UniProtKB/TrEMBL annotation:
Protein's name according to its UniProt entry: Lipoprotein
Residues making up the signal peptide according to the UniProt record: 1-21
Lineage, broadest ranks: Bacteria, Pseudomonadati, Myxococcota, Polyangia, Polyangiales
Keywords, ordered alphabetically: Signal
Length: 300
């Protein structure tokens, strides 16, 4: 889950400040006298200092005209996951968090082999999109990379997100062409699918034909679209009553880029969702593998 990202310790105060304004550890240098009417006004920048062509310049992230933020992340252990929310749908906590986002000069530290990389896209009211990167420990990027958001300023927003990453969703392999009947299956591996419409929940799809079980809790009668992202082989989704005896809705299997959207009107209660993958060449051979996604959206 996004909420499980590792969070680096804060930099020492002196080092943090030195990224922007330098740091002094002594005051042995005597002050220089300035005659009245000469020199810069107090607090004004020193025009005699040349920052140079490679000096760090902070880039605005969330502005008064920003209307949406979208995050996609990938980690060795977590797999892929994402989140997208319009300004109008954000909580006060989220609005405060995105207002605190800042860019930073990446630290000169080794890149961990299993760190989490994040892409952040901010859409403006004029339709333009600004793209940033963030990475655990604020590690450096290749030359010409996107502006880097300070991971410490991103973590308050990440803390508001409770979404599934791909490796949070277990899969049960099968050798038959027909998807599993949950009425007689062991569904103890089922995980809860968040109702947050901002979540782009990751789902890992193995080489084999497989089924994944999720529970979905509905607090008020609502019509939802359940949308799949990247299709690997043939994917389908079925919605069952909580007792697993009644099939309420099923999608048309998707393939390639034509993934399914399953619309259903839910009453209050808990439901069981079964996401199934069937290889085009049959379940006796391996098929494509990777991360796909499930997103809950209120029907319009």
């Amino acid at each position: 889950m996004i909420r499980r990202f590792l969070v680096p310790a804060f930099l020492p105060a002196c080092l943090s400040l030195s990224l922007f304004a330098g740091c002094s550890t002594s005051n042995d240098t005597a002050p220089t006298a300035v005659s009245a009417g000469e020199g810069p006004a107090p607090g004004a920048p020193d025009a005699s200092v040349d920052a140079g062509p490679d000096a760090f310049v902070e880039v605005p992230v969330w502005k008064e005209t920003s209307v949406q933020i979208a995050i996609s992340s990938s980690g060795y252990w977590e797999g892929a996951t994402g989140y997208a929310k319009d300004r109008a749908d954000m909580s006060d906590e989220q609005l405060t968090a995105v207002a605190g986002l800042r860019t930073i000069q990446p630290r000169d530290v080794p890149r961990p082999a299993d760190g989490t990389s994040i892409e952040v896209r901010v859409t403006d009211q004029d339709g333009s999109v600004a793209t940033f990167r963030a990475e655990e420990f604020n590690v450096p990027a290749a030359a010409g990379a996107l502006p880097t958001i300070d991971y410490d300023t991103l973590k308050p927003f990440l803390a508001t997100i409770q979404c599934l990453a791909a490796h949070d969703v277990p899969s049960v392999a099968r050798t038959t062409e027909a998807p599993v009947d949950p009425a007689g299956a062991d569904v103890s591996s089922a995980v809860a699918l968040p109702a947050d419409t901002g979540c782009v929940n990751g789902v890992f799809v193995p080489y084999q034909c497989s089924d994944s079980f999720l529970t979905f809790d509905v607090q008020a009668p609502t019509t939802y679209d359940i949308v799949s992202g990247r299709c690997l082989e043939n994917l389908s989704l079925r919605i069952y009553s909580n007792d697993r005896t009644t099939l309420l809705a099923t999608s048309v299997p998707g393939s390639g880029d034509a993934c399914f959207t399953l619309r259903h009107t839910f009453d209050v209660g808990r439901y069981l969702l079964v996401m199934s993958k069937t290889n085009a060449a049959g379940c006796s051979v391996d098929g494509k593998t990777g991360d796909t996604s499930l997103r809950i959206q209120k029907a319009k």
